[in-house]
Amino acid sequence: MNKRVFPILTALITAAAVVFCAVATYAQGVLISEEFRLPRPDIIIIHPPFPPFPPHPPILPPRPRPERPVLEYKIDSIDVHVTMTDQAAEVMVSQTFTNEGSVQMEASFMFPLPYDSAIDQLTLMVDGKEFPAKIMAADKAREVYESIVRKNLDPALLEWMGYGMFKTSVFPIPPKASRTVSLKYTQLCKRTDGLTDFLFPLATAKYSTKPVGKISVHVTIDSADPIRNVYSPTQEIKIQRPTEKSASISWEVEKIVPDSDFRLLFDVGTEKLTTRTVSYMPNKDDEEGYFLLLGSPEIKAKDEKPRAKNVVFALDTSGSMMGKKIAQAKDALKYVVKNLRDGDSFNILIYNTHVRLYKDSMQVASEETRNEALVFIEGIYAGGGTDINSAMTMSIEQLKKASADNPNYILFLTDGCPTVGETNDAQIALNAKKANDCKARVFSFGVGYDLNSRLMDKLVRDSSGQSEFVRENENIEDRVSRLFNKLQAPIMTNVQLTFTPADDSEAKKQGVPLVNRLYPDSGFDIFAGEQLVISGRYRFPGKGTLKVSGKINADETLEFTYPIELTEKTSNTRYAFTEKLWAMRRIGAILDDLDLNGKNKELMDELIQLSIQHGILTPYTSFLADENAQLDVASNARRVERRVDALAENTTNASGVTQRALKGAFKMAQNVAPQAQRMADADMALDSVMAEEAAAAPAAPAYHARPSFDSAALGAAPAAPAPSATQEKAAIAQNLRQIHNRTFFFKNNQWIDSSLTETQQNAAPRKIKQFSDEYFALARTADPELAACMTFEQPVLLNVNNEPVLIEP
Q1: Cα separation, 372 vs 367, whole angstroms
Q2: Each residue's pLDDT tens digit, 137-191
Q3: Nearest CA to 214 among 172, 277, 256?
Q4: SS3 334
Q5: Which long-range contacts (CB under 8 A, 24 or more apart) does 241-247 make?
Q6: What angle do CA 151, 152, 154 make, to 5 degrees?
Q7: Which bin fits 24, alpha (ψ -120 to 50), beta or left (φ > 0)?
Q8: What is the pTM of this model?
């Protein structure tokens, strides 16, 4: 067995190094045998690393596992096609297994059935031949699950206790041979809070000797009414809307251990702006609720003219842009010009030591003006210094001369720091803020690692814009075109949200706002085809109203009012993802505040607490995965402070760029799924920030080797020095798990539920022996989330009804 530990960074982003998702599954299945344990990957890769990490000797010892034979198979591919007509879903699944062992494998294909599903017309094929199988109700299936768990001493299947089962009879798979299992079924999806909820779980795909080769999911939705909100809380999906009553959704990944199930929410509506609000209040003392507001404008007919916009493209043509960068930047500028709509106003500004305009005034887009602009772009070359201050203020002055009925946008591209004219970044940002009385939104594109990334963030923050950081090996045109496509058709600008509690609500009686800490808050724009996602908190459940208002031209405001209801405390985790998403955005806001306004003890303490509670580790809190780090704020405050100091120093290097890209990814998170891009940002940011930390405090390492780790066996000195970023990332891969909405850290040779307070962690727990009658009794009576938390192979300290329970192997 390969004992190498590959460092992965997904935990830095979403607290999921190996995620044991235990939501009920009813299509993607697992091969089982009553004589063998289920396989686990030796090398765990949740998303393709970017760039790849090299192999290295184990930093941490492998987890002990019972000495039982293991099924040796891998899952080559999972291909899912779904056709949805309103709430009815027809699902076709194809899954290929390969026997990795040297002997023939006799196994059954099994997948759990959720208790609330409505499935019929289920057909199963093995290599194109229909295969006999049977469906078991939950009571009968529980006996089978428990029997296999007891016999194999493998807790894996325990996470589906309480669900039904579809199980085939035994069929052979010769050594090194593959079998393709195909499944077809229809399902009636639930509709709650106006949202149709389709779930395709991938939990069983983690049981494979290697990461899954490829997973592809394609969903087609046809509706009798116009489709509005289309949203996945778990994946970065691609959405196409050929008509207002149809939508096509796709998600494809390769070489992964799935860290979440595929979930899709959509609704229908006839309003110009359709909104839905979902909420979740954990069943805990003194815990506020979380809510998510989804909004989507109507899909305009193809022949309907969209609202015009004013655009200035400011391009850095200094000497550092020579070569590949200026060529790609010119291609990006050409893309923008070619895709301007008739009636849009535009101008081009190029700047180096001097600033030059394409035309003295804004041009109205037409075939003629677009062609003239393309000729101008061909003549652009690079050379000279960088006058960012003049370029920004002149771009704003151009927009002041354009039509006041149109929204104003600046696409600002640079690869460097200000070297000509005003060079103080604070003054440049202040000058732009004072000049920007036309409410232009700035979208900056920082190219490479030699730019002043903090200045870019200041410019966009003051204008409610967005920073994009383009690495040296990335294509500038691709990043610019993606953002410009989003800006193509503004519907409402300077949108304001007003939440009002009902007269009989507790919030009204207590005199507190209905909601608080919204991300984003107000002042944003809504574009055609955009999926609006607002995340926030609330103190009291109850009813109220939401008013959405925004400009549709200089003098006309459009308003919509919607009823909303925020749920009471509940153990139902259907919308528990709202908690994690809010925490990600809040972390992004905290990092932004620390970056632009300096250190703040309250914010740094909150950052630690959010990291512990939700398992969202950043480069500033990644050391929490160290087994010897305490899970409390006070023990970690100084170390976070040192790492925040490092961020303050990094404004014009790779570390600064990658840290601020990571910060932006948190702030704009649309769902709780990890992204390869955020992994790359976190990877370099962690390396850089730890190097800064080591230089600042070389004599105060806060990391220690695991006591049981025989470092001498690897040729290392017994004493443990301060860790490298590679070691810390490996620790995260080993020591952090998420199951449903719970986070677990590996401390003192056991897993600890982070929802337990420090006092509860140190109290004498109730002890239960794994695989005992008491263990199975708890699994039978527990909710699915808790049962899934009982699948660890090592000791685990659980929060059971707010009391500590230790399950021991």
Answers
A1: 9
A2: 777 777 887 888 887 777 877 777 766 677 776 778 888 888 888 877 788 888 8
A3: 256
A4: helix
A5: 241/299, 241/529, 243/299, 244/298, 244/299, 246/220, 246/221, 246/222, 247/220, 247/221
A6: 125
A7: beta
A8: 0.84
Both structure tokens of 117: 């599903």
Reported as type and span, the H/E element at residue 526 is strand 524-527
Pairing between β-strand 227-231 and β-strand 190-192 as defined by DSSP bridges: unpaired
What's the whole-number mean pLDDT along residues 785-793?
Answer: 85
Q: For 72, what's the count of Cα atoms within 13 Å in the CB-facing half-sphere?
A: 14
Give me 426's structure tokens: 């604070």
Strands 246-256 and 238-243: antiparallel
Expressed in angstroms, the distance from the first to the final Cα of the chain is: 23
Whether the upstream peptide bond of residue 520 has omega within 30° of 0, thus cis, is yes
Q: pLDDT per residue over 192-239, tens digit each? A: 889 999 988 777 777 777 888 999 999 999 999 999 999 999 898 999
Give per-residue burial for 133-166: e unless 16+ CB within 10 Å, then b.
beebebeebbebbbebbeebebbbbbbbbbbbbb
Element (H, E) at 329: helix 324-338
Alpha helices per DSSP H over 403-546: 425-435, 453-461, 476-486, 506-510
- Would you state the structure tokens that stand for residue 361, as one six-digit string? 């005034």
Provide the token pair at 170: 């035994």
- Of residues 434, 438, 435, 361, the one with CA closest to residue 405: 438
Cite the DSSP H helix spans in 350-421: 367-378, 388-400
Amino acid at 314: A
